[in-house]
Amino acid sequence: MTRYQMWIAGKWVDAGSGKTFPVYNPANGEEIAQLPLGGKEDVDQAVAAARAAFPAWSQKPQAERSQIAMKIAALIRDNAKELGRIETIDHGTPTKAAPILAASTATRFEWAAYNARSLMGHTIPSNSSELVYLQREPVGVIAIVTPWNFPMGMIIGKLAPALTLGNTCIIKPPSIDSLSALKLAELLAQLELPPGVVNVITGPGAPVGGALSSHRGVDMVAFTGSSEVGKEIMVAASRSVKRLQLELGGKNPVIVLDDADVDTAANVMAVRQFSNSGQICSSPGRFYIHEKVYDQFLKKFAKAAMSVVVGDPADEKTEMGPVVSAEHRNSIEAYIKSAVEEGANVVLGGTRPSHPTLKDGYYVMPTIVTNITQNMKVAREEIFGPVACFMEKFNSDEKVIAMANDNIYGLAAYVWTKDTTRGMRFANRIQAGTVWLNNTYKQGPELPWGGFKESGVGIEGSLYGLLEYTNLKRVQVDLANPGK
Ligand code: NAP
Ligand code: MG
Question: Cα–Cα distance between 13 and 1 in angstroms, integer?
Fold first, then answer.
């Protein structure tokens, strides 16, 4: 059993309380590590260290910080195999995807490194006796609070722009999946960054995340997670009017129109539904299928779902591993039960795998539930698991747009049609930060990501996302009477 420490002010330390907590491998329920149970006193130390580090780090020339960002990217690539192995035992990421996912996070640092060097200010037209210019400055100390669904990727999406642009950071990884964050700290330690520039505190959400969100020494909270916790962070952060970037939940509609390429749509959406065991904020949340193609789509989708190889994530053949924890499996199973109680039909899965080698892991088989109506719990709430929710068939464009928008979330949507103009009419009217029209799912640092409605505030990725980690300053210079 490995007992870990956390990274505060450039040192490996235990929690101030001296307490630890266990974490488990979701593939077999075995305890894999003991982590420091951080609390308020550890937060105070990390904030003090990050504040102390801020002046020098923020004043370092951008070219130097960008070079450091490139070195971090190289370290991530060199260690992608080990980072992937950690995500497999801690989160259950299938081993055939885990190192690729880990390596892909390096692009966030590379992209930030190049683009931070090209952030330009503006001058504002005035008159000959005055110069007005705008400049971007780092915000200060940033608390990065992240979920478990892509443990390292979620951190890097925020750390790369924040750090590269001159902010100092305190990372609060998800309790149940903190190991990759600690490995990342170990890699950063090799670069001998000034103490306090990056800190990692492990420990439970409300005591650690909550203390960071309300701390007067924290200037911004960059958070990805559930909308419930996002709202709590907003309240806690309001006391000192912090900058917030919140990437929250989704219940993403998939609309398949009568003129869609049904086979491609079904195959692609099955991959989206069951990747990472359905634990992706952009996973399909509600399937709205036109009545003319409903049977064909469901048949093809079910075939694709049945062919997903469920198994131990350490096995090279596995496509879908367990869900993240026993508690989360219970929550997914409770959603399936509630759907049946409200009159929906489970037409595939809904069970745990029968293979004896998987009996101690937190597995849920690929599941399809049909006949779901708009007000059922499974139509309104995020399940975050391998459960495809098929709504009743539709036959009217107007009605399906209204149904797709009838939800508190507005994260992403998928529209399938061969008529691009019809698809663009849907894209214009759907309330979501991202609309994928046909087979176009793609992520990358140059693309913005953010939610409408209760799916979030602010943007991650792209130049818009970089600017979230800066303050805009206006400087107005009197040229006519200098110094008077
Ligand atoms: P979560 O329960 O909201 O937790 C997210 C993070 O917040 C964890 O580090 C958690 O710590 C911490 N936390 C919990 N309570 C807190 C509090 N009162 N104050 C401050 N921090 C607190 O979310 P999750 O279950 O880990 O992740 C699943 C959710 O993330 C889903 O809703 C999903 O849609 C969303 N998500 C959104 C995006 C996006 O880009 N929009 C991407 C990925 C995931 P502990 O781990 O210690 O509880
Ligand atoms: Mg874990």
Answer: 18
Residue 295 has φ and ψ, to the nearest 5°, of: -65, -45
Best probe residue, ligand 1, of 101, 176, 202, 226 (max atoms within 8 Å of C-beta): 226
Helix axes 106-116, 62-78, angle to 10 degrees: 170
Q: Which of 474, 450, 449, 471 is nearest to 167 (CA)?
A: 471
Query: Measured in whole angstroms, how far is the alpha carbon of residue 169 from the centre of its chain?
Result: 17
Rounded Cα gap, residues 214 and 235, in angstroms? 8
CB within 5 A of ion ligand 2: which residues? 23, 90, 176-177
| Residue to mutate, 229, 275, 457, ligand 1, most ligand atoms under 8 Å from C-beta | 229
Give the Å distance between the CA of 30 and the centre of ligand 2. Answer: 10
What are the residue numbers of the active site? 247, 281
User: Ligand 1: which residue has its CA nearest to atom 20?
Assistant: 209
Among protein residues, the one whose CA lies closest to atom 45 of ligand 1: 205
Round to whole Å and give the CA distance between 126 and 431.
39
Per-residue pLDDT of the chain (484 residues), as tens digits, is 689 999 999 999 999 999 999 999 999 999 999 999 999 999 999 999 999 999 999 999 999 999 999 999 999 999 999 999 999 999 999 999 999 999 999 999 999 999 999 998 899 999 889 999 999 999 999 999 999 999 999 999 999 999 999 999 999 999 999 999 999 999 999 998 999 999 999 999 999 999 999 999 999 999 999 999 999 999 999 999 999 999 999 999 999 999 999 999 999 999 999 999 999 999 999 999 999 999 999 999 999 999 999 999 999 999 999 999 999 999 999 999 999 999 999 999 999 999 999 999 999 999 999 999 999 999 999 999 999 999 999 999 999 999 999 999 999 999 999 999 999 999 999 999 999 999 777 889 999 999 999 999 999 999 999 999 999 999 999 999 877 6
Answer yes or no: are the C-beta atoms of 467 and 124 closer than 8 Å: no
Cβ atoms 73, 107 nearer than 8 A: yes
The rounded Å distance from CA 399 to ligand 2 centre is 42
Q: What is the DSSP string of 260-297?
A: S-HHHHHHHHHHHHHGGGG--TTSEEEEEEBTTTHHHH
Asked if 439 contacts 264 with a C-beta cutoff of 8 angstroms, the reply is yes
Give the H/E segment covering residue 347. Answer: strand 345-348
Do the beta carbons of residue 277 and residue 321 sit within 8 Å?
Answer: yes
Quick check: 82 and 180 in contact, CB under 8 A? no
The C-alpha R_g of the chain, in whole angstroms, comes to: 24
